[in-house]
TrEMBL record, chains A, B:
Name of the protein: FAD-binding oxidoreductase
UniProt entry tagged with the keyword Flavoprotein: yes
Biological process, per Gene Ontology: lipid biosynthetic process
Active site feature: Y441
Pfam families: FAD-oxidase_C, FAD_binding_4
Coiled-coil segments: none
Organism: Dactylosporangium aurantiacum
Length: 522, 522
């Protein structure tokens, strides 16, 4: 289990993996100055925080589960969005949890909810704390506790006949894969936050893994859930498929801690893939590359990797400097014929596979490796860019293919128009692709006036969210709703459905203690 | 649109496709007498029914939409389960709808619901009327209308870029496929009821098609829904994927007309498959065949057909008389390597592909064709068997692989123990298979005392449902809940989830007019 002293309370991941001051300055000189007007000054890494005294006293029976020290409270104040890190760097910890509770058992969760109901405290469930949408941050006035589930960390039965695993909600990605590996099994679910996020967090937010197609959303792996609500536990039946009315699991998948605390799941696992094949393909234009991806999907091919990077993304993240878009293409399992079929489709759209280079790893392999390394390092680099005075954040959606071109143009234009001096780098990749549409993922980078970073981003985010909504995109494909997406979700979700969710919440959480302000206007 | 005079009001499908008296007697002599103690007498096809006068007067503004003639009312009294046909043959139409309403537009649906609320009438949505679980039959005391959606029968935009179709709820399977065929597209969803069931019925009951693996449940094809509730319309956003909270579509999928009337959907469609390959494989024992199916699925293979017939099923439905189980195996699209891989796995478990016969269609092709023809004729044959005095009905479930052997034994024993004189033929096929478990489908045939058929079946059904529940199976994999499965669902569904569904119903249907008694105890 990760001890909190080792994790960064203000930024991403492990404290000792953050770029130090020298590394930040090198990044500025080598990668940023040619592009962006930055002065090279650095926001310092903050000292340990000083916080107001908690307004709650933990109950005696659960005393060992509660922490009240400032670093633990600070680490549970925000998620890990740009605006979270920027606020923490500026020492803005305006509404930290009064207490952090680390239950070790389902009984502890029941006791914590009972106590919080009686104490009038809000309860914000917390998995790995990697939310980028304000999902673990409380914005109300009442006292509140962060319910950190990371000590519910047991991997139970691993069933080799049914290919399923029983796992508690607080198990992190690496621990789950370590438990499965000796059996030759894998969940095969790798969100970018994999190392620092938990099974329960994935389920509560309907996370999507880095596989581009096929079973990538965690929903697909769920056999059954166990959820503790203020009204009692809820369990679903563990079966491979059922048509017995609306799905119980689907009620809680994506409920973001507002209806109950997911404490355990049965998940489907699979054999570790024996074979993999991957390459990268260069396209003269982005539109042609998009058409190739659409055709690949609609031909029934399901590449495990099918990430389309626009030319700037390709340069920044895959080291490709020829100004062309790159499609990173990979297959697992029975690979040979499928990759060849996909490359034929790419060629029809002007795509050229990167040639193997003599005497060393191929260009394609280098580009794929460069992308993977960049993908995993990206959040640490992001923190360095924030310290250097940049707004740097991502926005994601999904839309029908027929609406993608207009959505892409509108999002890019909206971000640039809302940026200071209208200067912003806006890149786009397709992270996931479906036969009926892509999931585009935009990165926005713009210089910010010190101290105004959060306001600037909030303005850009609002403009971009309007553009997404106006062009038929979902307000979130896989970052979840939290608090930041709620104003736009409230317009996309039918008002009667909102009323149904409110009715569900009244049924399961009549006093409204669970994550108030996420998913539903309190 | 099918005019009701052409459809059988008492039995399956087209009236002129039913087996006539001579055909019934031939069936008895050639196929049944060697096996079962029947006397060969026939229940006559009933005359047109005489019904009590309706207790409702249709509103003047919708008068053209309403029918009150006895044949139309009789045809909407029941679904098409064994117990429905048996009751109709015996002239037991105890609680026919007072009126049948055929709305032509969404506005008509709104008007019908408004009128029914004011009139205190229950409203039972009706697609093609092929429910086998009491889903379209009202068992309450109040006046009621059957809301037949078959005139909401327009196929709207067919979007070739996004591979999607907008379709009204009352479109039948063949009409949808006919509209898609000129575009080279298909929904690829073929429940056994395909010819006589509607898109709206599939969605409301979470139907599964005859493809054995992969996207077989209609849920997988849904981009967006439009639903009319007594409180107003509900629409979901049309996107290829979303993580924006619990899925709106999943709330209505499987709601069986209790929360709203599904009037339209955007569905994902796909290219018609260019290549197909299929064969049949004989296994010395059923356990070995089950293990082969499990291994095929867990190896990542996704055959389009993977129906495993036990020896009696193989004889009755595929003409295989060697006492061996048969696996009907088919792939679509990129087929060659995959079928070879699957056959290798079968060989590891003792499976032998049926050899091609010289100078004619292969044995395998004959067995596959025999099965397909039997599959489509089965409901007509079933009606003939009922006229001959047999109880003949099917029961289906899904369970983890590790529980299948015990479930199979328990269901078989329970059906035989509950049958008259403990004599029943109980066969099993696997209709669908998942990496984590199969969906077994049992057929029960037993002679019945004239007039006692329904009581006898109800006793068998109760015993079998207990066996399923006790052995970890869902009470329904794809027949839905309706009224017949409700007592067992009430035990499998967590009571708090039942309360959430009740709260959803109160929100959308506060007077409780929609399909009372289905899915929820009224």
């Amino acid at each position: 289990m990760a001890a909190w002293r080792e994790r960064s309370w203000w930024g991403w991941g492990w404290a000792d993996s953050a770029l130090d001051d020298d590394a930040c300055r090198r990044l500025a000189e080598t990668s940023l100055r040619p592009w962006l007007p930055i002065d090279g000054s650095l926001l310092p890494v903050p000292d340990d925080p000083v916080l107001p005294a908690p307004r709650l006293i933990p109950p005696s029976i659960l005393r060992e589960a509660f922490a009240a020290d400032p670093v633990t409270r600070a680490a549970h104040t925000y998620g890990k969005a740009f605006r979270d890190v920027a606020r923490a760097l500026h020492g803005r910890l305006d509404n930290p949890p009064d207490l952090v509770c680390h239950p070790r058992t389902g009984h502890d969760v029941v006791a914590a909810l009972d106590w919080a109901e009686a104490a009038g405290a809000a309860v914000v469930p917390y998995g790995g704390g990697t939310s980028v949408v304000g999902g673990v941050e409380y914005r109300g006035d009442t006292p509140w506790i962060s319910l950190d589930l990371s000590r519910l960390n047991r991997v139970g039965e691993i069933d080799p006949v049914d290919r399923a695993v029983r796992v508690q909600a607080g198990v992190f990605g690496p621990a789950l894969e370590q438990a499965l590996a000796p059996h030759g099994l894998t969940l095969r679910h790798y969100p970018q936050s994999f190392e620092f996020s938990t099974v329960g967090g994935w389920l509560a937010t309907r996370s999507a893994g880095h596989y581009a197609t096929g079973p990538t959303r965690v929903d697909d792996f769920v056999e059954a859930l166990r959820v503790i609500t203020p009204q009692g536990p809820v369990e679903s039946l563990r079966v491979p498929g059922s048509g017995a009315g609306p799905s119980t699991d689907r009620l809680f998948l994506g409920s973001e801690g507002t209806l109950g605390v997911i404490v355990e799941a049965w998940l489907r696992v699979t054999d570790r893939p024996a074979r993999k094949a991957s390459t990268s393909v260069a396209f003269p234009g982005y539109d042609q590359a998009v058409a190739a991806v659409r055709t690949i999907l609609q031909a029934g091919l399901r590449p495990s990797n099918c990430r389309l990077l626009d030319p700037v993304e390709a340069m920044l993240n895959a080291g490709a400097t020829d100004g062309r878009a790159r499609l990173l293409l990979g297959f697992e399992g029975a690979t040979t014929g499928l990759l060849a079929d996909a490359l034929t489709i790419c060629a029809d759209h002007g795509g050229v596979p990167s040639a193997p280079s003599a005497g060393g790893p191929s260009v394609a392999a280098a580009e794929v490796d460069s992308w993977r390394s960049s993908f995993l390092r990206a959040p640490y680099t992001r923190d360095a860019l924030i310290r250097l005075g940049l707004v740097v954040e991502t926005v994601e959606t999904a839309c029908p293919w027929s609406r993608f071109e207009a959505l892409h143009a509108a999002v890019t234009a909206a971000a640039q128009a809302a940026a200071p001096a209208r200067v912003a780098v806006v890149t786009c990749r397709l992270t996931h692709a479906y036969p009926d549409g892509p999931a585009p993922y935009f990165t926005v980078i713009t210089p910010a006036r010190r101290g105004a970073e959060v306001t600037i981003w909030d303005e850009i985010k609002a403009a971009v969210s309007e553009a997404i909504t106006a062009n038929g995109g979902t307000i979130t494909h896989h970052h979840a709703v939290g608090r930041d997406h709620l104003p736009w979700l409230a317009r996309q979700r039918d008002p009667l459905v909102t009323e149904v969710l409110r009715a569900a919440k009244r049924t399961l959480d009549p006093r409204g203690i669970l994550n108030p302000g996420a998913l539903l206007d309190p």
